[in-house]
Design goal:
- The chain starts with a helix and ends in a 21-residue tail after the last helix.
- By secondary structure, it is mainly alpha-helical.
- The chain is 64% helix and 0% strand.
- The chain has one domain.
Length: 116
């Protein structure tokens, strides 16, 4: 590739860049306009960031309030029976179906036609 072909290729590339960038010609308001464009694109991400911070702060406040409530709440009444006795006497625990693991063995099945 010769030097003139390289210059033409570079000129086409720079021309395409100028059209894609659309910054216009440099003037006294170039930087303020450029920053206005940048800030307009950042506004949606800043809004999302602000919303995320609000939710995180709310979750932290709710966690702290729950901790304070649990610390200051009165103790539950003493249980008159032990945990094992309570579970043994509980009717729901006695009616639950308990499942045990089973082993399924493979067998060959023969399909027979019904007798006529």
């Amino acid at each position: 590739m010769s030097a003139s072909e390289q210059e033409q290729t570079l000129d086409r590339l720079l021309h395409a860049y100028r059209q894609a960038a659309e910054y216009g010609e440099p003037s006294a308001n170039f930087m303020p306009e450029l920053w206005a464009r940048i800030e307009s694109r950042r506004s949606t991400s800043l809004a999302f960031e602000r919303l995320a911070r609000i939710f995180a702060t709310g979750a932290l406040a709710l966690t702290l309030l729950t901790g304070v409530y649990m610390t200051l709440s009165p103790a539950p009444p003493p249980v008159e029976e032990t945990w094992v006795e309570n579970v043994a006497n509980h009717q729901l625990a006695q009616r639950v179906n308990y499942f045990e693991p089973v082993q399924v063995s493979t067998a060959s099945y023969h399909v027979t036609s019904p007798a006529k």
